[in-house]
Design goal:
Layout: H1 6-14, H2 18-33, E1 36-40, E2 42-46, H3 74-86, E3 91-95, H4 104-117, E4 122-125, H5 128-138, H6 142-152, E5 154-156, H7 167-173, H8 180-192, E6 197-203, H9 209-226, E7 229-236, H10 252-265, E8 271-273, H11 276-279, H12 281-287, E9 294-297, H13 318-327, E10 331-334
Parallel strand pairs: 1-9, 1-10, 2-3, 3-4, 4-5, 6-7, 7-8
Helix pairs in contact: 1-9, 1-10, 2-10, 3-4, 5-6, 5-8, 8-9
Bound molecules: iron/sulfur cluster (SF4).
Iron/sulfur cluster is lined by residues 51, 53-55, 58, 60-61, 97-98, 129, 174.
Length: 346
């Protein structure tokens, strides 16, 4: 199938023929992944919401001493991971704010302590934004930071911080954050070291369809260059408790259409993920017929979306995930962090 152009992608965004877009996305999805729908047994740990930035779309960050501010200690994080391991997880997903005082050595100690629990446990940790923060504070190069963290147990990078790449949007919703090129360069560096990562796109705030196309184009170009992305995660903006709380956030219709267009446009990506925590399991089930082949995982505790008022549960048992996938007519496949099927982790 020929790769679609940016102009064609924009026309799809402007179209209201959701059925036709969904059908095309489903064809691509089934060609790539058959009837499989992936999920992972994972445990999210948001280690702290202390952050030196104050992105307008974010309800998670706090300044030290502010109501709702928290940071987890090493022992507490290890305990959470240990309890989750006993339930059979294969991955820890670890992200937080840009902590004002933690030193690189603390993150290294944290990764080492988690890895020591079980060498098979995959540590998916840190956004490109966090990596740049660590590098800035330690006055070291990005590649050097990534190599140091990898030696301590970092398995793959998370995809957060991408938001929307277009500078005119970035400067309005997250002005002090890195530029698109800087974000992409962290992933490029990691991919060239042999690492894998996910990427994200935050939709439904002030961006226009053109900005989404621009965002997808930049991701597709980097994927052409490195092949290091495992999946795109499209994140619906949640306005509650943010500086943009006057905005409505994306509709289910918009979200489905965007997932489907991403599936059609990103022909060099193997997987398109619907993060059920952010959109609800009901819509995630429908998305499995609109280009999506992955609904993320058990999660177990989530703070970033829940501080923005999301009402979804914080965890889902393996049996519930499988039942939701089966009900949508797909075959559930438990995967590891690199999308290899997991039959037994015990
Ligand atoms: S989005 Fe991330 S960097 Fe921005 S304020 Fe929230 S926690 Fe900090």
């Amino acid at each position: 199938m020929n790769r679609i152009t940016d102009a064609e992608a924009l026309r799809l965004f402007q179209s209201h023929d959701l059925n036709a877009i969904g059908t095309q996305a489903n064809t691509v999805r089934e060609a790539k992944n058959g009837n499989a729908a992936f999920y992972i047994l994972n445990r999210h740990i948001n280690y702290s919401n202390l952050c030196v930035l104050d992105c307008d779309f974010c309800a998670f960050y706090r300044r030290p001493g502010e109501e709702g501010a928290y940071e987890l200690g090493l022992a507490e994080i290890v305990e959470k991971a240990k309890a989750a391991l006993a339930l059979g997880i294969t991955e820890i997903h670890l992200v937080g704010g840009l902590h004002p005082t933690w030193k690189l050595a603390q993150y290294i100690e944290l990764l080492r302590a988690l890895q020591a629990l079980d060498p098979r446990l995959h540590l998916k940790a840190f956004t490109a934004t966090e990596i740049r923060h660590f590098a800035r504070r330690a006055k070291r190069r990005i590649g050097d930071i990534l190599a140091t963290l990898r030696d301590a147990g970092l398995g793959s990078l998370t995809g957060g911080g991408a938001e929307i790449f277009a500078p005119e949007i970035r400067k309005q919703i997250c002005a002090p954050k890195e530029t698109a090129d800087q974000w992409l360069d962290v992933h490029r560096t990691w991919h060239k070291m042999g690492g894998r990562s996910t990427c994200t796109m935050l939709i439904g705030h002030i961006e226009k369809f053109e900005h989404r196309v621009d965002h997808l184009r930049r991701l597709r170009e980097l994927q052409d260059e490195t092949g290091g992305f495992t999946a795109l995660v499209t994140l619906p903006f949640q306005p509650a408790n943010t500086k943009l709380s006057h905005l409505p956030g994306p509709s289910g219709y918009d979200l489905l259409k965007t997932l489907a267009i991403a599936r059609i446009y990103l022909d060099n990506f193997d997987h398109i993920k619907a993060y059920w925590i952010s959109m609800g399991m009901k819509l995630a089930q429908v998305a499995l017929s609109f280009g999506v082949d992955d609904i993320d995982g058990t999660v177990m505790e989530e703070r970033i979306y829940h501080m923005a008022g999301v009402q979804t549960p914080q965890q889902m048992a393996c049996a519930e995930l499988e039942a939701a996938i089966r009900e949508a007519g797909r075959d559930p496949v438990q995967r590891d962090s690199l999308y290899r099927p997991v039959s037994d982790f015990s």
